[in-house]
Amino acid sequence: MHNTIEKAEGKLGILTPGLGAVATTLIAGVEAIKKNLAQPVGSLTQMGNIRLGKRTENRYPKIKDFVPLADLHDIVFGGWDVYSDNVFEAAMKAKVLEPMMLHAVKAELEAIKPMKAVFDRSYISNLDGDHVKQAATKAELAKAVMDDIENFKEANDCSRIVMVWCGSTEKYIEVSAVHETIESFEEGLLNNDPAISPSMIYAYAAIKLGVPFMNGAPNLTCDIPALIELAKQTGTPIGGKDFKTGQTLMKTILAPGLAARALGIKGWFSSNILGNRDGYVLDHPDNFKTKEVSKLSVLEDILQPDINPELYGELYHKVRINYYPPHGDNKESWDNIDIFGWLGYSMQIKINFLCRDSILAAPIVLDLALFSDLAKRAGMSGIQEWLSFYFKSPQTAPGLTPEHDIFKQLIKLQNTLRHMMGEDLITHLGLDYNQDLVEAM
Ligand SMILES: NC(=O)c1ccc[n+]([C@@H]2O[C@H](COP(=O)([O-])OP(=O)(O)OC[C@H]3O[C@@H](n4cnc5c(N)ncnc54)[C@H](O)[C@@H]3O)[C@@H](O)[C@H]2O)c1
Predict the structure, then answer these.
(1) N or C: which end of the chain has fewer CB within 10 A?
(2) Over the stretch 313-360, which tens digit does the pLDDT of each residue have?
(3) 11-243+358-420 and 247-354 have identical folds
(4) Which helix (H) or strand (E) holds 106?
């Protein structure tokens, strides 16, 4: 495959519906990194290594030196928002990065002005922006987004575009008839079907144009049969849902470890307080429900209580998110974990994570943009399960349970890169280092 991967030549446009805390932290960060003012910490594509061949070969190149990724200097940013603030203004309001850092890249940030959004208040009732497209039908809105993409590509002289949803979490909806086939979906666009959300309109526009689409929120968005099918037809990589940061990141690091040692878990109570706009949107029960579903599935899939009833059959899992303005983007989470060990003796683990949500999310957006662009150039299309590493609720083929264990997710990601580049896959078997033993067998 490596001989057929197209080179990362020319500029890559990264478009984000939503230019809020996460997107502006990403953009300001990349501009600062380009000026050598900071390091891309947390980004696997920029700082991670990958082992190649046998352990005795000692080959550990940087991932960005191993696979042909777009260079940060070749990236151009753009996006849509329901508020008209440019990226500098939006970043100042989000208060994630220090004003000094933002002033160092002020000119670059001020130059990025949001395009008018596709927005429907019935999906996010806690937002009231008016920088919004008007059209008679959802089909016209989708066409307008496609025009935006084409115009952006031309104006910025990009050879390729990717889209990552960094917009707010929409209210909870389930897959229904209009989402089933491309035909029913396109008819729904013409008939303004209420079950087609704004994020689906962006996703449809991107996928129709063959632009990779990654979904950073827990909304259904491209996780519906119609858009999965369309992605296959148009040769487009897609993925989601919900960036894996903060508390869920901790959960998918810790739970596989406890399960690996066959320790039991009776209860896992997770509470969060956060005060940014994301927290305000999630304060509405309809939007919280979407997030809750995404956060709850994690433990069950890792611990598999059905095949481990003695250890996890009684597990009580609860997740709470509370809007608390004084904390801003500096989310605080508490986890109380009731575990039990040998002969059923109980123990407790407490985690108090004082994190910065957008600081954890920004490098994920960068990696997803770069890897989905790589996937497209490598001829991969449809759901990119190897990018599950980045998601709270990974999108998978129908009938397949998602893999939540972060270590298995990393092995999958790295083996996919090795496979792309024609390197041996690594199974971690290791018996071949003990030749005599193997030959004796
Ligand atoms: N920060 C994290 O750690 C994290 C983790 C996982 C998921 N997420 C998700 O990422 C998304 C972005 O998070 P954030 O902290 O930047 O939130 P934010 O509220 O700061 O930014 C979201 C932006 O999207 C805009 N928006 C909403 N609907 C839109 C639409 N239809 N079109 C265009 N713009 C729209 C809003 O006006 C807002 O500016 C949220 O859905 C959040 O749940 C964030």
Answers:
(1) C
(2) 999 999 998 999 998 888 899 999 999 999 999 999 999 999 998 999
(3) no
(4) helix 106-110
Between the CA of 441 and the centroid of ligand 1 the distance, in Å, is 57
The strand pairing partners of 238, in sequence order, are 213, 383
Please give the distance, rounded to the nearest whole angstrom, from the Cα atom of residue 427 to the centre of ligand 1. Answer: 38
What are 196-229's pLDDT values in tens digits?
999 999 999 999 999 999 999 999 999 999 999 9
At 41 the pLDDT is 98
Output the pLDDT for position 377: 98
CA–CA distance, 230 with 342 (Å, rounded to integer):
51
Is 437's pLDDT higher than 60?
no
- Residue 261 Cα to ligand 1 middle (Å): 37
The per-residue pLDDT for 291 is 76
Query: Tens digits of per-residue pLDDT, 221-272?
Result: 999 999 999 999 999 999 999 999 988 999 999 999 999 999 999 999 999 9
Q: Choose the CATH number for 247-354 among 3.30.360.10, 3.30.450.20, 3.40.50.970, 3.40.50.1820.
A: 3.30.360.10
Instruction: Please identify, by atom number, the ligand 1 atom nearest to the C-alpha of residue 167.
Output: 24
Q: Please, what sign has the CA dihedral across residues 216, 357, 322, 247?
A: positive
pLDDT score for 60: 97
Query: In the chain, what percentage of residues exceed pLDDT 90?
Result: 84
Best of 166, 248, 333 for a ligand 1 pocket test (most atoms within 8 Å of beta carbon): 166
Distance CA 164, CA 13 (A): 11
Indicate the angle between helix axes 225-234 and 182-190, nearest 10 degrees.
Answer: 110
pLDDT of residue 438: 52
Distance from the CA of 279 to the center of ligand 1, in angstroms? 10
Q: Which atom of ligand 1 is nearest to the CA of 357?
A: 3
Domain spans in the chain, listed from the N-terminal domain onward: 11-243+358-420, 247-354
Cα(274) to ligand 1 centroid in Å equals 14
Query: With b meaning 16 or more CB within 10 Å and e meaning fewer, what string describes 294-318?
Result: bbebbbebbbeeeeeeebbeebebe
pLDDT of residue 207: 98
Instruction: For residue 316, give the amino acid letter.
Output: Y
Cα(167) to ligand 1 centroid in Å equals 4
Instruction: Look at residue 194 and tell me whether its pLDDT is greater than 80.
Output: yes
Closest-CA residue, ligand 1 atom 37, reads 82
> In degrees rounded to 5, what are phi and psi of residue 85?
-55, 140
Q: Is 26 in the pocket of ligand 1 (CB under 6 A)?
A: no
- What's the CATH superfamily of 11-243+358-420? NAD(P)-binding Rossmann-like Domain (3.40.50.720)
